[in-house]
Amino acid sequence: MKNIGIFINPSKDKDGLILSMILKKIKFYFNNSHTYIINSKNDVENLKSPLDVLFVLGGDGTILGAARDIVPSINVPILGINIGHLGFLTSVEIAEIDWALKKIKQGRIKYERRMMLKCTVYDNENEYSNLALNDIVVARGTLSRMVEFQIYVDDKVYSSFKGDGIIVSTPTGSTAYSFSAGGPLIVPSLELISIIPICSHTPTMRPIIVGAQSTIKIISQDFDEELFLTVDGQKSIKLSKSSQIIVNKFSTSCNLVVFDNFDYFEVLRNKILNKNGEW
Fold first, then answer.
1. Could you confirm whether 60 is annotated as catalytic?
2. Residue 248 CA to chain centroid, in angstroms?
3. Which residues form the active site (predicted)?
4. Do residues 229 and 127 touch, judged by C-beta distance below 8 A?
5. Tens digits of per-residue pLDDT, 52-108?
6. CA-to-CA distance for 50 and 54, rounded, in angstroms?
7. How far apart (Å, rounded) are the C-alpha atoms in residues 16 and 8?
8. Where is the binding site for NAD(+), in residues?
9. Cβ proximity of 29 and 101 under 8 Å
C-alpha cells in the first residue's frame, strides 16, 4: 500500500485524536506510504496519484456518503473502520486497528463488489440525479394521505397500488430500511434489485426481486400534500406531481475491503440476529 486515503466523520472525532492515532499507525506499518486526508470532492480531484485504499472512519452512514461522493470519481476500495454504533458495513472496529493493519500488510484481504443504484428524477422543470449504495425511497410526508404508485419494470407495468411509499434496494441495503419493511435478506455480493412496498393498502402488491440490468420507473398519483425521494436515508428532495423516478444499476460498483476470515453470515448473526440465531 503506497497511497492511502483517509475519510473521517468529523462529528465522531471532534478533537482529532482518532485521526492523529490512525496517521501514526499507518506510518508505523507502512513507513514508505503516502497518506492523503479526503474531506471533499475537491481533495479527490487534487490527488496526484491514485489511491490503493480509502480508510473510512465512522459508521455505516459515513461509508454510504463516501460510496456516493468519492467512489464514482476514483473507484478506490473502501476499508470501513467503525467508530459509530452498528457498523454493519464496516470491516473492523477502531480497537482492532493494529490487527487490521497487520492483515493488510500481509495481503490477507479481499474485495467485495457491491452494486450501486442511480436514480434520476424528471419533472417539467428540473432533473435531479444521485447514487445509492443502500436504497432509493419514495414516501409520503408524515401528515399526508396514502399515495397511489405505478411501478414499471423495463417499461412493463408491474403494479399499481396505494400505500405509504416504495423502497428500491440493493442487496447491501437489504439489511436497512428494506428489512424493516418486510423485504428479504439478500447476500450483498449478488447483483439484484428489490422493490418493496411500504404499508401497502393493496393486498396484491408484494415485494419483488428483479435483475440488476432492469430499469424501474415510479410514477406517483393522487397526492395533495408532500412526497419525498430519499437516497440512502441521507439526501432528500420534495417531489412534484409531474415527477417520474427512474432507477437502475450504476455503472461503477463500490468495492469494500474485507479480511480473509470474513464471514457474512457471522456478521449477520452478530449485528442483526441475536446469538441464538433468532430474531
1. yes
2. 14
3. 60
4. no
5. 999 999 999 999 999 998 888 888 999 999 997 777 888 899 999 999 999 999 999
6. 11
7. 10
8. 60-61, 134-135, 145, 162, 164, 175-180, 234
9. yes
